[in-house]
Design a protein that fits this description.
It is built from 14 helices and no strands. It has 389 residues and is mainly α.
Length: 389
């Protein structure tokens, strides 16, 4: 049966959903920190290292993706991602020591997730004809959506069945979801290269534009990942209860997911620099709100605004790549740009932790986030409103 263009796009979106949702549970890793540490006899430094390692290998996988998806059929590559990450989770579930756990979760799980993320993004952009901003915003929203759905399930499963069963179960889910994604990619007849595009279009770097867009993305991600990585601790530092801190984690993750969809959708209707500057100003307003009126009741909306600024930026960035560069270049440009996300993940969040150890508060970190947003706004207004010639 031959699918219509609209049906092919729908199948590509479904394939991205099936593959990315379980991988988004990476953002829910903090839920199982304590039981993992007790099980393996390790400390917070070791578990933090594994999360950072998974972030790095995720980025490595993203950058390997464009080199692989032209040589390997998309359905087969989706299955390979599932096998890599699924086996990694099985190794982590059976691990008796830190090294085995780091290999399974920090290396294999992250690597498969990264290749798969770029695979389905490139596949989507080879099929979508209209509302590409909304479609790209939706795809990048799947990670925080996976975390929002996975966090309470992780908490329940870890308590009811133990961490080993939780990791093994997640491995089975990853294998199954990647198999479903592979089937959908096959049905959609995804071609990762548009032969009708100019031969050199995918390799035109447009470095000034790339660096400016990358800087805007990096600055927004620095502030946003500060919030996402330490939301519960920040809420408690400002006097919030444990219940409020736990609720904040899920609420902020949901807000980021919605903002990513919104950021992509806005690019379909407004010039990129307007959306980019607006996202940074929204985050700045949140940082100033918490600075001027610190307190537990203000903390949740203020942190949500900072994180949503990152969410809007993530959504519009994916949409902007599709607007500024040809289809064949999407995966290559996106994978390089996500290096900024990796650096941001180990930048301001680490500085904020260092400042907290010395001041027992987050006031200085929030002020830095405000300054980051100001700089991001100045860079954002210089982005082109139309596709460069």
């Amino acid at each position: 049966m031959r699918l219509t263009p609209g049906q092919r796009t729908a199948a590509a979106i479904a394939a991205a959903t099936a593959l990315n949702l379980p991988f988004g549970t990476l953002y829910a890793f903090s839920v199982v920190l304590k039981p993992l540490e007790a099980l393996l006899g390790i400390g917070r430094a070791e578990t933090s290292f594994v999360f950072a390692l998974a972030t790095i290998t995720l980025t490595v996988g993203m950058n390997l993706g464009p080199r692989i998806y032209r040589a390997v059929p998309p359905p087969l590559l989706a299955l390979a991602c599932g096998l890599c990450s699924g086996c990694g989770l099985f190794i982590a579930a059976a691990a008796e020591n830190f090294a085995a756990f780091a290999l399974g979760y920090g290396v294999l799980f992250g690597l498969g997730a990264g290749v798969g993320f770029i695979l389905v993004q490139q596949g989507l952009n080879q099929t979508v004809k209209s509302a590409s901003g909304l479609a790209n915003g939706y795809v990048v929203s799947l990670y925080p959506l996976g975390a929002m759905l996975g966090a309470p399930l992780f908490g329940w499963a870890a308590e009811a069945f133990g961490v080993r069963a939780l990791l093994a179960g997640l491995g089975a889910i990853v294998l199954g979801s990647c198999a479903v994604s592979a089937l959908l990619l096959r049905v959609a007849v995804i071609r990762m290269h548009d032969a009708s595009a100019p031969a050199d279009a995918a390799h035109h770097p447009q470095w000034p534009l790339f660096l400016r867009l990358g800087a805007v993305f990096f600055l927004a991600a620095s502030a946003g990942l500060l919030v996402l990585s330490q939301a519960a601790g920040i809420v408690q530092a400002y006097g919030g209860t444990t219940a409020l801190a736990l609720a904040a984690t899920s609420i902020i993750s949901g807000a980021v997911a919605a903002a990513r969809i919104g950021g992509g959708w806005l690019v379909d209707h407004l010039p990129v620099p307007h959306v980019a500057a607006g996202a940074q100003l929204w985050a700045l307003a949140g940082a100033l709100l918490l600075t001027l009126w610190p307190g537990p009741l203000v903390t949740l909306p203020a942190l949500a605004m900072i994180a949503m600024g990152y969410g809007f930026t993530s959504g519009f960035t994916a949409a902007a790549i599709a607007r500024y560069w040809p289809r064949n270049a999407f995966g290559r440009v996106a994978s390089l740009l996500y290096i900024a996300w990796c650096v941001a993940a180990v930048g301001l969040p680490v500085v904020a932790g260092w400042l907290f150890d010395r001041t027992q508060g987050y006031a200085w970190a929030v002020l830095i986030a405000a300054g980051v947003s100001v700089l991001g706004t100045l860079l954002a207004v210089g982005l082109p409103g139309r596709k460069p010639a």
